[in-house]
Amino acid sequence: MAGKPATAQGAGERRSLVQSLASQLRASILSGEVPVGVKLPSEAMLTAQHGVSRTVVREAISALRSEGLVEARQGAGVFVIANTLSGGSAFDAVDLQKLSNLLEMMEFRIAIEVEAAGLAAARRSPAQEATIIETLEALDKVAAAGGETGPLDFDFHLAVARATNNPRFEQFLESLGGRAIPRARLGGGAAAVVSGQYYAQLRTEHHSIADAISAGDEDGARQAMRRHLTNGLRRYRALRRKAAMSEH
């Protein structure tokens, strides 16, 4: 695959910058400093003002959009539409410590993300393709070092959702946040029993998705994402069983 490799540290730094910028913009909106109806500064202006990349600005704005504070209007810019946070996502109350809830969420993700992968293969821009590749390379590096891969795993799925160029897919994943990658939340030591074989299988599945998207293979991307998430159902069951056994 082509694309400039990203380090795990770089990906982590980007996430931190996104959170910092989103927090600053959110505070300005909630305080009334930027009133409802007002247009936010352009992407270029925010990039210059805060000394961050355009990608950081886009992700920060996306976070505010998922919170119901702003909306993008075609050809006009991003406008503030509320100065109070909404009651949160309907998924906030889902208890992923319960295997039944986790499996229900995985089934729901299959319904959404399989189509997202196909659309990403058809619509991705060169920059979006590069982001998918870079995130995957960072994920591989962290996994090889034995680190916590959940955040970068989420970033990979989010990069695929963004490559659809339909913001609703991105908003769905953002509403889940870290709950989309629940293995660290399974409890009972489940995260501790994740094996090298587990990550090797994940790597194969992730690369199959990315390769199909890069090749513009819509059907192949859908099949690869379906296989990945369906296998996830089975793996989470296995993780729960291993964790339960380790407690006895």
From TrEMBL:
Keywords assigned by UniProt? DNA-binding, Transcription, Transcription regulation
All copies of the HTH gntR-type domain together span: 15-83
GO molecular function terms noted in the UniProt entry: DNA binding; DNA-binding transcription factor activity
Tell me which PROSITE patterns the record gives: HTH_GNTR (PS50949)
Domain of life the protein comes from: Bacteria
Please give the PANTHER family that the UniProt record associates with this protein: GNTR FAMILY REGULATORY PROTEIN, TRANSCRIPTIONAL REGULATOR, GNTR FAMILY
Name of protein: Transcriptional regulator, GntR family
Q: Which organism is it from?
A: Tranquillimonas alkanivorans
